[in-house]
């Protein structure tokens, strides 16, 4: 009885390694990000500030290098006079990833 139990456990361990190896070679969802064209559609945030450094964040949705949606996602915040947005300071809203420079 004890030998049979050891044999069953060892068989299950070997089968699990075998299936793990097989399924590591077959990828169901692992390449979804690689298959998308990164520059076609993406979303990012940017602070929009006035001359008094009163700022609010907006979410920018870009498709094919054009802004299709700009939505405020925060309230107005007063920053110190020397504050700068640490994110990309590009004036072009949707040229960040596609390099076209046209937005």
SS-based structural class? alpha+beta
The oligomerization state is single chain
Order of helices and strands: HHEEEE
Rough outline: elongated
The overall strand count is: 4
Largest sheet: 4 strands, antiparallel
The portion of residues forming beta strands comes to 25-35%
Query: Gap between N and C termini, in Å?
Result: 74 Å
Rounded radius of gyration (Å) = 26 Å
SSE layout and pairing:
Layout: H1 2-25, H2 32-35, E1 41-49, E2 54-63, E3 66-72, E4 77-78
Task: Describe the fold and architecture.
This protein has 103 residues and is α+β, with helices and mostly antiparallel strands. The chain has helices at 2-25, 32-35, and strands at residues 41-49, 54-63, 66-72, 77-78. Strands 1, 2, 3 and 4 form a four-stranded antiparallel sheet that branches. It is elongated. Helices cover 27% and strands 27% of the residues. It starts with a helix and ends in a 25-residue tail after the last strand.
Give the tags.
about 100 residues; alpha+beta; four-stranded antiparallel beta sheet; 4 strands; about 25% helix; elongated; disordered C terminus
């Amino acid at each position: 009885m004890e030998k049979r139990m050891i044999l069953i456990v060892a068989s299950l361990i070997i089968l699990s390694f075998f299936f793990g190896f097989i399924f590591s070679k077959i990828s169901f969802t692992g390449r979804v990000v690689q298959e998308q064209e990164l520059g076609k559609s993406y979303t990012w945030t940017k602070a929009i500030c006035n001359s008094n450094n009163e700022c609010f964040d907006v979410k920018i949705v870009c498709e094919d290098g054009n802004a299709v949606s700009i939505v405020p996602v925060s309230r107005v915040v007063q920053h110190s006079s020397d504050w700068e947005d640490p994110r990309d300071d590009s004036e072009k809203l949707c040229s960040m990833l596609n390099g076209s420079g046209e937005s």
